[in-house]
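Feature request disguised as a bug: please show the residue count (133) next to 8-oxo-dGTP diphosphatase in the output. Example input:
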Amino acid sequence: MTKKVVHVAVGVIYKDQQLFICKRPDDKHQGGLWEFPGGKVEQGESVFTALQRELLEEVNLTVNGSEELMVIEHDYGDKCVRLDVHIVDDFTGTAHGAEGQQGKWVALNELDDYSFPAANVEIIEKIKQRYEL
Ligand SMILES: Nc1nc2c([nH]c(=O)n2[C@@H]2O[C@H](COP(=O)(O)OP(=O)(O)OP(=O)(O)O)[C@@H](O)[C@H]2O)c(=O)[nH]1
Ligand SMILES: [Mg+2]
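Example output, currently without the count:
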């Protein structure tokens, strides 16, 4: 039987050589680790609409446009995810953890100081290539 895959829209929020990241609540899947804001794509919803909805809910940003970076499938054992990762550099608003979670702007060359879920290793590699770090 094929495993159910959870489809997730993930936003790499970029401004002036920095990314906005959030800390996942301890009680959630991969809790306590840092993440790029985002969440599940609902039935019948486009990835871009999910991205807009999740980033407004989680970090209070209005996404005007985004660009696909990559799609990653990762099996955590307890859960299988498909991350549809987009670079978000066209947005309005001031980013903050709008659901009470910790959130911060981190310089691209300091990303390695933060622990992310295993699926994010590839994302971070790709970001480094893109911004020539
Ligand atoms: N948002 C986000 N999720 C990620 C990342 N990396 C990663 O493996 N995930 C996984 O993707 C899944 C989606 O997550 P989510 O918990 O944000 O979903 P959601 O916002 O819809 O929240 P919910 O769980 O309250 O419904 C989680 O299993 C999470 O562990 C990442 O960088 N950002
Ligand atoms: Mg989320």
